[in-house]
Amino acid sequence: MRIFEPPKSPFVPRIRIINLVDVLFILLIFFIATTTFRVASQQPAGVKLSLPEAKSAEAVGKQKTNQLRITVAADGAIYLDKEKTATGQLEKALKEAKAKDPAVIIELSADKNANYGTIVSVVDAARVAGIQNITAFTKKSVQ
Predict the structure, then answer these.
(1) What CATH class does 47-140 carry?
(2) Over 60: is that where the pLDDT of 143 sits?
C-alpha cells in the first residue's frame, strides 16, 4: 500500500509556441540591427565619395591587374587600399609597390570637394615613386 498516490489529472504537458515566437522575434530584430550596422561600417575605407562628372568617362577597373587604389576624401584624408595614410607614408608605400611590380597602376578616386592641393600631393608622391600610370575615376555626366 502506498502512502502517497501520484495525482491523476487530465493535464498533458505542452510546449507553448507563443513564448518561442517572442524569442525568435527578438533574435530576428537583433540580427537585422547588427547586420545594418556592420554593412554601413564596411564601406571602402569608410569614405563616401561624390565623384566629379565627365562626358568622356569610361568604365575602367573591371579587369583585375596590378592596381593600387588611392582614395582622397572630402576632408582631405588619404586612403591607400582602405587604410588611412599620410602623404609621407604614401610615398614610401608607393616606392615599395613599384619595387615589387614595375608596371603598377594607380587608381585615384577623389571627392569632387577634396582640396586640389591634396590631390596634387598624391600625384606627386606617385611620380616620385616612379609610377606614371595613374587612372582617375569620374562618373558619366547625364546629358
Answers:
(1) alpha beta
(2) no
